[in-house]
Amino acid sequence: MLQSRGTIDSRQIRSLDNALSNEGIKAEIKAIEKALLQRLKQGDRIAFWELWLLHKDFLYRYCLRLTNGNVDDAQDLLSQASLLACNKLPAYDKKIDSCQALFAKLAYNYFVDKCRKQEKETRDLEHLKQTAIVNRQIEIALLQSAESQLLRQELQKSIDRAIDELSPRLREAFILRCCEDLSYSDIAETLSLSKDNARKRVQQARKFLRNRIKKYLE
């Protein structure tokens, strides 16, 4: 596992995830992205960095999750992903549906390759352990619960354990959907899946988590 001097804990990571864009802002970002891609196709290299800055905050949060809150590793991953994207994006001839998904996929692939080189005997992506409250429904239920503080703490621990028990393939899809708020199309592109398979993995993960915490929500 990669080491560094600084880390961000799960509470800090959750706080970064609370500012989710509404539909109006997303539509505006799409329009800006389309204009920047057009400039990039015309040879304007500055347009790439404007595109990158448009999604940098999301990508930094995503890199933090991949590196389990390790600040130095997340910043290094973000830097490497920007270089990869700068080299690869202008070469894409086909229409790009989501720059955000493409950037996330480049970061993810780079991280997996690096981990495979360092840990050849393990491929289960343990670095994706999640300690966040991963589902808005669970979060609402927790806030509205009349249970005691102790019960809420037990629920959080149960959620954490349940996330740890998810298989890597389910955990990856679930994080992108329920923590990063990606669409199923973007998840499919990021993890090289079909849209139906992406949806199925998220549904399987949700069912697993519901069964694990069912007694707290009754």
Q: What report would you give on this structure?
A:
The chain is an all-alpha fold. The protein folds into two domains: 10-118, Rna Polymerase Sigma Factor, Chain: A, CATH 1.10.1740; 129-217, Orthogonal Bundle (Arc Repressor Mutant, subunit A). It is built from ten helices and no strands. It has helices spanning 10-17, 23-41, 46-66, 71-88, 99-118, 136-144, 149-165, 168-179, 184-191, 195-217. The longest helix has 23 residues, at 195-217.
Q: Which short descriptors sum up this protein?
A:
218 residues, mainly alpha, Rna Polymerase Sigma Factor, Chain: A, Arc Repressor Mutant, subunit A, 2 domains, 10 helices, elongated, disordered N terminus
Brief digest:
With 218 residues, the chain is mainly α. It is built from ten helices and no strands.
Per the CATH scheme, the topology name of the largest domain is Rna Polymerase Sigma Factor, Chain: A
The span between the termini is: 39 Å
Sum up the overall morphology in one term: elongated
> pLDDT under 50 segments (min length 5)?
1-5, 121-138
Q: How large is the count of helical segments? A: 10
Q: Estimate the mean pLDDT confidence.
A: 74
CATH superfamily of the largest domain: RNA polymerase sigma factor, region 2, helix turn helix motif
Structural class: mainly alpha
Q: How many DSSP-defined strands?
A: 0
**How can the largest sheet be summarized?**
none
Radius of gyration: 18 Å
Total number of distinct structural domains: 2
Tell me, what is the CATH class of the largest domain?
A: Mainly Alpha
